[in-house]
Amino acid sequence: MAGRHEKYWRLLDMCNNLPPIPTAVAHPCDNSSLECAAGAAKMGLIAPILAGPRARIEAVAEEYRIDLSGLPIEDTAHSRESAERAVALVREGKAEALMKGSLHTDELMGEVVKRDSGLRTARRVSHCFIMDVPTYSEALIVTDAAVNIAPTLEEKVDIIQNAIDLAHALRFPEVRVAILSAMETVNPKVPSTVEAAALCKMADRGQITGAIVDGPLALDNAISLESVAIKKIDSPVAGRANVLVVPDLEAGNMLAKSLSFLAGADAAGIVLGTRVPVILTSRADSPITRYASCAVAVMVAEARRASSRKAVI
Predict the structure, then answer these.
(1) Where do runs of H (alpha helix) occur along the chain?
(2) How much is the pTM?
(3) Domain coordinates of the chain in residue numbers?
């Protein structure tokens, strides 16, 4: 059994020798988001550029005694303009990451996914939780619990590949992907089991790369070796998964919140498939979870730099 936050502290340690990434912070107009940006800057994780109403940001900083020394502020009129300006900072090459402040996720993501002025790539945009579950030996990536409501088979290919690439950026020694459903056998009456089988075959054919992929697997089959032994499942993933792919957003949301509220897990959030990593935090997040989300973005940015260097060579 791992200790609480042990996995997040390991992640933060991996960032010690990496440079802080310039990060556009959209509308940090409350205590938690502004304190996170300033705290992550002091830890050397990010170099924040605050996009929001200057007067409100400075008032929050004064009320909660948050030191904003050296942090540039891009003055905006309201949250929508804050999101627009933060995305523009990325497009202008001034930021390598985007961070959600006190605005709604939909408001920020609406700017991110705009076709002409957003941050889209050829890859489908998707969300990952990096979960620190005290009772599980490894960090767990859960995807997608915040962006794609009912992804198609084609979209799930990108969602899975985004999660696999994230696992490599976080230096997982081996990436084991479990495609979840309600059972471990293919049942034509349960569409998610049929899709899971198709996705596994796509992985066999090289359409999904960089991981061992298996499914369908019920949640217990994915993470419990005892369950695997009882059901006599022969799989290199079953009981040892470190990436969990859910059928849809509702399942992902319920799984992540169940782990958080019933198993004491924390959930760092990141959006991928965009030009730069998008750090999604919640007002309910603990400080260590917020900093872990920043650390994830640092690792993703570093992996992209390394990939670019290899491409040049």
Answers:
(1) 6-14, 31-42, 54-63, 79-91, 105-112, 153-169, 191-204, 219-223, 225-231, 249-263, 287-312
(2) 0.94
(3) 122-273
